[in-house]
Amino acid sequence: MLTSTSTQLKSALEDWPKSIDDLGAASAMSYILPSQHIVNSPNVNINPANSTDTGNNLPHIARPQTEIQTAFEMIDMGILSHSLVIKFIFSPDGIRLTQRQYIKSMLADFGLSECRHVATPMVEKMHLLPDMGMPSADSILYQTMVGKLIFLIHTRPDIAYAVSIVSRFMAAPQENHAQAVKHIYRISKKQST
Predict the structure, then answer these.
(1) pLDDT of 152-177, one tens digit each?
(2) Which residue numbers delimit the Reverse transcriptase Ty1/copia-type domain (predicted)?
(3) Rounded to 5 degrees, what are φ and ψ at 91?
(4) 161 or 128, which is more confident?
(5) H or E segment at 97?
(6) What pTM was estimated for this model as a whole?
(7) C-alpha to C-alpha distance for 18 and 39, rounded to whole angstroms
(8) How would you label 94-117 residue by residue, b for 16+ Cβ within 10 Å and e otherwise?
(9) Contacts of 5 (CB under 8 A, 6+ apart)
């Protein structure tokens, strides 16, 4: 049964691009550029800041959507509001992404709900090395904490460098590495309130 299912999945994945091309919808697909908050395609250039209509009733979206719905099983679920714990907020100024609930649960998971907020993602002039002669930290806890921070980078690029530094020590973390991770969590505290 598993072989049959995997064969069907492989066949569907191979047929999907061909089916979309047959519909002519591939050229009408839209891409969101996060840095510009603009939806682009060869036929359309919409800036949400200049448009009051962020719904599904735009004609250039409705036609390909209808064609795809007739060829495939598809349900229109309306405007995207949440995906993978990222909340999408549409406004005339653009599209805002937030992970406020994720940050709150993340802080609660590690007992940092009541921690003080800090202004910078890393302690100034702190140099982390693989072996600093400190006691070992719990590697599973460390890896979990860093993994959650990696996911948080989607909406918090300001912590990306600090997370890249602490992720280097996931194999054998020490106490000072764990303190650096907790410091990054503390900068996230402000956004959770």
Answers:
(1) 888 888 899 999 999 999 999 999 99
(2) 55-123
(3) -150, 170
(4) 161
(5) strand 94-98
(6) 0.60
(7) 24
(8) ebeeebeebbbebbeeeebeeeee
(9) none
